[in-house]
Amino acid sequence: MTDAPPLARAMAEAAAEIDQALDILLPAAEGPEAPLFAAMRYAVIGGGKRLRGFLVLEGARQFSVSRQAALRVAAAVEMVHAYSLVHDDLPAMDDDDLRRGKPTVHKAWDEATAILAGDALQSHAFTVLAEEATHPDPAVRVELVRCLSKAAGPRGMCGGQMIDMLAEQSGGQMDEMAVGRLQTLKTGKLIEFSAEAGAVLGKAPTPQRHALLAYGRDLGAAFQIADDLLDATASAEETGKATGKDAAAGKATLVSLLGLERARLQAERLVAQAKDHLDGFGERGDLLRMLADFTIERRS
């Protein structure tokens, strides 16, 4: 990777570190629980862009947080993200057979094991955050638990999924504002937390914490539009998952409401806003600026 662009190299190195942390925090088990641990490891270790974990690491780097502490939080975020994907892929939800280029957990095992693996990944993530190894200050650990649970709960990721299901049942009749709210909850809140977490770990001043949170908010919105664009234009081989499903299901997305070009322009505006929030971080925020551009340039 020595000849790779700086962002690609940094993301690859971070992904390897996060996988190593996950391997330690979620070791293989023996005995009757072994299939559950195997399904959890299958869901979370290897594959994926690790965008959320990378955000945690880069946010933490702004405040010279120890790499070990940041990696534990990055791993916890990736566990929560993986749990959401495992459940999202179930027949009762999106009914997908492919994720990150391999069979989904309920296909590799069965539906019951997939449900338990998702549940266990979520609970284990909070165990990791609550342990003293994550931060010596219990107030910081409580704040991390509070913020992540809020991002993943009924006013965050789960709430967004509920709105998404209801919208599909009603034939996808949603306007631009409603779609934006759905996407903010379902995808954006976890990205917001990932961007903010480093500031929490570093006990950053309120303005800097708010700047990273605002960066994450705009980045998350741009990321979701880019995902919708990929669903409309990319192949399953490129993305590692089924594409064209939104249109087939009649789902309202910003792409379906605005068209490809206007949706791209909206994503570009959001990326520009995200980068503006990093003005106070100087050169140290360069990888975060590059990540914002990558969000809408990616093909997977």
From TrEMBL:
Domain of life: Bacteria
CDD domains linked: Trans_IPPS_HT
Coiled coil: none
Cellular component GO terms held in the UniProt record: cytoplasm
Cofactor section: Mg(2+)
Residue ranges of the TM segments: none
Biological processes annotated in GO: terpenoid biosynthetic process
PROSITE patterns in alphabetical order: POLYPRENYL_SYNTHASE_1 (PS00723), POLYPRENYL_SYNTHASE_2 (PS00444)
Cited Pfam families: polyprenyl_synt (PF00348)
Molecular function terms, GO-annotated: metal ion binding; prenyltransferase activity
Keywords: Isoprene biosynthesis, Magnesium, Metal-binding, Transferase
Keyword NAD applies: no
Family: Belongs to the FPP/GGPP synthase family.
PANTHER family: FARNESYL DIPHOSPHATE SYNTHASE
Protein name: Polyprenyl synthetase family protein
Species this protein is from: Dankookia rubra
